[in-house]
Design a protein that fits this description.
- The structure is a homodimer of 208-residue chains.
- Chain A is mostly helical and 208 residues long.
- Chain A is 69% helix and 0% strand.
- Chain A contains eleven helices and no strands.
- The first copy, chain A, has helices at residues 4-7, 21-37, 44-50, 58-61, 65-89, 94-111, 113-121, 128-154, 163-175, 177-180, 189-203.
- Chain A starts with a helix and ends in a 5-residue tail after the last helix.
- The structure holds a DNA duplex (30 and 30 nucleotides).
Amino acid sequence: MSTAEETAGGETEPWEEVTPDAARRLLVAAVEAFAERGYHATTTRDIAGRAGMSPAALYIHYKTKEELLHRISRIGHDRALDILRTAARTEGSATDRLAEAVSSFVRWHAGRRTTARVVQYELDALGPDARAEILALRRQVDGEVRGIIEEGVAGGEFDVIDVHGTTLAVLSLCIDVARWFNVDGPRTPDEVGALYADLVLRMVGAAK
Amino acid sequence: MSTAEETAGGETEPWEEVTPDAARRLLVAAVEAFAERGYHATTTRDIAGRAGMSPAALYIHYKTKEELLHRISRIGHDRALDILRTAARTEGSATDRLAEAVSSFVRWHAGRRTTARVVQYELDALGPDARAEILALRRQVDGEVRGIIEEGVAGGEFDVIDVHGTTLAVLSLCIDVARWFNVDGPRTPDEVGALYADLVLRMVGAAK
DNA sequence: GCCGAAGCTGAGCGCCCGCTTAGGGCGCCC
DNA sequence: GGGCGCCCTAAGCGGGCGCTCAGCTTCGGC
């Protein structure tokens, strides 16, 4: 852990599961390029150039440009789901768990903004099969948050009429952080996480 | 007013300011294509085809493909700002005005989802000058919402510590509706508008 | 009935895209 | 130390992109 980026969300070193080294460098380069310009505006020559390789090198490790996006999206969604599952399983009241889920989820979207941006906003560039796989992960993400809210309502901690709609709004709020968060802006990921946890507890009517 | 789409947000017929007729048809076709596939994945041949014209016809009415996006973005932001200004100027408490601002803003993002999607998510495809012009409009959008919240805090109606951060979150919540709203889904724009107005009033700590 | 302007099309230019192929360098194993 | 397999590059293919241009049709004014 040597840089601010690496400690974001207190997570393990990202992309370490991607081997060999050249494949990981290409993938990291693709994340940066996709986040900056969008998938369709990014060329394979740009990705290879950022990784210090020739355009042809990309095709040794990945069949197509779309496979790169698929791998990024898959790993990113796995990580997002892992964050929410960890929060949902911690001990404490529904209020505690919802606050932890929102703050850690938001910290990830802010601290790992480039990854989150690709993961959350380039889904439409995937083909039907890959998109279906990712959408299944998204339903699990939705389920984790909805579960906490349902428990809070059942236990009398929360006051929510439309659980599905509120779940959608909470996730939407967190995800959109990847769109507007600015690394050079006035807020740290931790600060946004704390603010958003407070706002979400208000949304579900949790007692102070 | 003959279709559900046209009555969304109770607004006037959109794009009527775009003349001549062929230019408007091209612009409407571009909105649909950009919303479906994104700006970079849309070809000028696709836009012209949707408008029932040859590819060359596009360049009689617009200098470049980017000018089309610029015009769409400009008109859309003007409309969004108009909606918020109207809500901010209505009579009533800050609570009433914030509820009206959020519900009408959300109704527009849901009911005019294709337009809103292009307006809110394709900003990065514009060149520096056009982007700067649009960002100025966004600051005005932000100012309208922040103004209502500040008045609510000053008048004791709201309980908000971080006004800027809360304003950002409220706008983020509304804007992201354009990403997830599904016309074939279970909720109408009116229903989402009402739900979101309630959630936002909770976020600012407005009394019931 | 003629003319110019406006609107549009068919053809296509030059460019850059995603991706392929042939072959070279280098380390590892016997 | 010779052969093999893994990575990688230089070069380039086929195609689709944004955009252009010469010329055709249509129509209002006189």
